[in-house]
Structure formats: C-alpha cells, structure tokens
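Propose amino acids for all 130 sites.
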C-alpha cells in the first residue's frame, strides 16, 4: 500500500503548477469585480444596453467563481509545498492514510485521499471546513 514519496519530483510539479495558477490569476484579475487593478488602470466596462449589462454580469460571476477556485488551488499548492518541507507530503489530512501515487500525480496538491475528498465534495480543492 505505502510507497516512497519522491519529494523532489512533487516539489518540481507543485512549483510548476503554482506558476501556472499565478499566471491564470494574473490574466483573470482585471476581469473580476472587486479586484482593483494594481497599476490603477481603469478599464471597467460601463455598457449602456441592459442586455450587455446582463451578459457582463454573468461573465463576472463566472470569472469570480474561477478566481475563487484558482485562489483555493494556490492555497492548497502552498500547503502541499509546506508539507514537502515538513516531510508530511502525501498524507490524507482526514484519515492520515497515504494518498495513492496515481492520485498525487494528477492532483499534486491533493489534501485528502480519494474517499475523504469524495466525502467532502467532488472537487479536489475545497473549503477548509465544512
Ligand atoms: Zn483520507
């Protein structure tokens, strides 16, 4: 059941994933309401037609949702990187069982084993507490 964790391999994988998430957040940030642009640039669209407003609102909703997912993913990646330092990486936070290698290869920032994650939600990254 248990396997030897290749910390270097997962550290590289997590760092790569972290960069990708940061880039995605950077790309999305200007589009999401409530996230003022760092450079102070104002490009918030103020449409005049109701249909346009509705369209933009639903787009903002979706972008905010994706943004939340990305922020959560980033947190999980940071948690996983810390666990590598602490040599606690790959252990399910709920049942303390070692998470399967195949699962970590797909989701290197997984905090729970498959069954615990399914108990919480379908997504691998989820709220701190339910
Ligand atoms: Zn578990």
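Proposal:
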């Amino acid at each position: 059941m248990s396997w030897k964790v290749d910390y270097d391999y997962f550290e590289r994988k997590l760092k790569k994933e972290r960069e990708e998430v940061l880039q995605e957040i950077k790309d999305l940030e200007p589009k999401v309401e409530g996230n003022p642009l760092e450079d102070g640039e104002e490009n918030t669209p103020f449409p005049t037609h109701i249909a346009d407003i509705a369209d933009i609102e639903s787009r903002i909703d979706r972008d905010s949702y994706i943004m939340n997912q990305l922020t959560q993913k980033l947190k999980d990646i940071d948690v996983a990187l810390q666990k590598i330092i602490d040599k606690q990486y790959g252990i399910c936070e709920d049942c303390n069982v070692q998470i399967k290698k195949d699962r970590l290869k797909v989701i290197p920032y997984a905090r729970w084993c498959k069954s615990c994650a399914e108990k919480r939600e379908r997504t691998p990254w989820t709220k701190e507490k339910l």
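Residues 92, 94-95, 97, 112-113, 116 surround zinc ion (CB under 6 Å). Residues 35-41 have pLDDT under 50 and may be disordered.
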